[in-house]
Task: inverse folding
């Protein structure tokens, strides 16, 4: 069985980059930390990550090449404590979200163990272009 790609469809011209973005996104889909994505209006979204135990200074949010990257790094401060059971992991993470053209990252808010990142996109303009036909 052959793998179907966007290039396999003759009417899908110029979507090779989209296919690469989808493949890149699929490779980085680890399950930690859990997150939600909600649509807050017709042109805005909110990503919420469960970051219990992470302080503001342990988190960073960047946009790199149309990709929203959220990183968390906790400092392991055992201070001589002896754990009989350690079920709360102090580990680092990186979550990436590919952003479509025109999507802008707004503010980030942390509270009650949740990190909220607001996104918005401009209302698309309706563009109609007429192509002149000339004799050849």
Result:
């Amino acid at each position: 069985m052959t793998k179907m790609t966007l290039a396999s469809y003759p009417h899908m011209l110029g979507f090779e980059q989209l296919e690469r973005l989808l493949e890149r996104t699929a490779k980085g889909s680890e399950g930690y930390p859990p997150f939600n994505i909600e649509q807050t209006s017709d042109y805005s979204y909110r990503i919420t990550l469960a970051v219990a135990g992470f302080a503001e200074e342990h988190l960073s949010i960047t946009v790199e090449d149309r990709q929203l990257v959220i990183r968390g790094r906790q400092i392991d401060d055992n201070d001589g404590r002896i754990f009989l059971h350690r079920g709360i992991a102090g580990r680092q993470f990186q979550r990436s979200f590919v952003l479509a053209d025109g999507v802008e990252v707004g503010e980030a808010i942390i509270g009650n163990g949740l990190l909220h990142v607001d996104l918005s996109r401009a209302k698309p303009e309706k563009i109609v272009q007429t192509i002149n036909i000339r004799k050849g």
